[in-house]
Amino acid sequence: MPRVFLSFRKADSRWMRNRVHLALAERFGSDRFFKSGGSIPAGADYAEVLRRQAAGCELMLVLIGPGWLDARGPDGMRLIERTDDWVRVEIATAVKAGNRVVPVLLGDAVMLPEASALPDEISALPRLQFLRVSETHLADELERLCDAISDLLPDIGPESDPPAAAPAAEPAVTMTAHVSGGGSAYQAARDQTIRLT
């Protein structure tokens, strides 16, 4: 089961979100992170999987970009105000389960929402210490984020996996070629040595 749940709004700061996910996957392995869409098998009950993963994760990263709070549906209502908003459901599920929830602010100017702007079940979100991934010096920022995740979950890194066995080296072959009368030696394979006599 993935250990870290990435909660996000699909239309919010897509390129930054994808960079964050790529950096985390490269550092720790993609199987350690749950990201809706890519982590839900075809034909699975989407709602059941999301709730189970949100309740069972050790860490939820709430990726918040500039459009996270004010995203609206066709009726003009803010999505976060809807009881069936998946971002709201994910966060509320993780909080209720007692999981660690960390807001991750995407961009230089994004701020945490005020508690009064959130539904009661997730109104604690602004009190949680956040991490920020600024656009300036993005590579350094992503490395810093990965370091913070490693501090929170020290055994998450690929170094905790048993090392893969190195393939056995094939023995070198030494061949002797006798060259006389102006003949030439043939090319040996790269793992062979030819000794001219």
Describe the overall structure:
This protein is α/β, with parallel strands linked by helices. The chain has a single domain (about 5-160), classed as Rossmann fold, CATH 3.40.50. About 25% of the residues lie in helices and about 15% in strands. It has four helices and seven strands; from the N terminus they run βαβαβαββαββ. The chain has helices spanning about 15-30, 45-55, 85-95, 140-150; strands spanning about 5, 35, 60-65, 100-105, 130-135, 175, 190-195. It has a five-stranded parallel sheet with strand order 2-1-3-4-5, sandwiched between helices. Strands 6-7 form a two-stranded parallel ribbon. Strand 1, helix 1 and strand 2 (about 35) form a beta-alpha-beta unit. It is globular. Mean pLDDT is about 85; it is low at about 160-175 and about 185-195.
What's the layout of helices and strands?
Layout lengths: L3 E4 L6 H15 L4 E3 L10 H11 L2 E6 L21 H11 L3 E7 L24 E3 L4 H15 L20 E5 L14 E5 L1
Parallel strand pairs: 1-2, 1-3, 3-4, 4-5, 6-7
CATH superfamily: Toll/interleukin-1 receptor homology (TIR) domain
Total strand segments? 7
Q: Regions with pLDDT < 50 over 5+ consecutive residues? A: 159-177, 184-194
How much helix is in the residues? 25-40%
Distance between the termini: 63 Å
| Major beta sheet summary | 5 strands, parallel
How much strand?
15-25%
The domain count comes to 1
CATH topology: Rossmann fold
State the helix count. 4
What is the molecular shape? globular
Give a quick rundown of the structure.
With 197 residues, the chain is of the alpha/beta class. Helix content is 26%, strand content 17%.
